[in-house]
Amino acid sequence: MELLGKNNYDKLIELLKKVPFNSLFARAVIELRVTGKVYVNDCDRPETCYVVHPYGMSLLLGSCRIKEFNDRFRAGMAVKKPGSSDPGSLFISPLSFPCKSSLRQI
């Protein structure tokens, strides 16, 4: 899981357009309207990404078959953020199925 530089956020626009539900919070991050963070499996060719909005909402989307990303994402989700009692809202939009087993592990 790599932190994507803001100058590369445009690589995710097409992937984000495939999300079948309201994901304007993630789009605001991708379009640099708000400050957020974007983690990807590969900065050059992102297939999976995790977009974090500063208000606590986040979106996981893309391929669910990238084991290294899944493992690092799961490890990061298990760590409670200091001073935070609310984990926020995680929205998941896998674009390839079957993803049930990967999602259960997360």
Task: Characterise this structure.
With 106 residues, the protein is of the alpha+beta class. The protein is 27% helix and 22% strand. The protein has a 5-stranded mixed β-sheet with strand order 1-2-3-4-5, with helices on one face. Strand 3 (48-52) and strand 4 form a beta hairpin. The longest helix is centred in the last third of the chain and has 11 residues, at 67-77. The protein starts with a strand and ends with a helix. 28% of the residues are buried. The model has no long low-confidence stretch (mean pLDDT 80).
Q: What is the overall shape?
A: globular
The third-level CATH topology is Aminopeptidase
CATH architecture classification: 3-Layer(aba) Sandwich
Low-confidence stretches: none
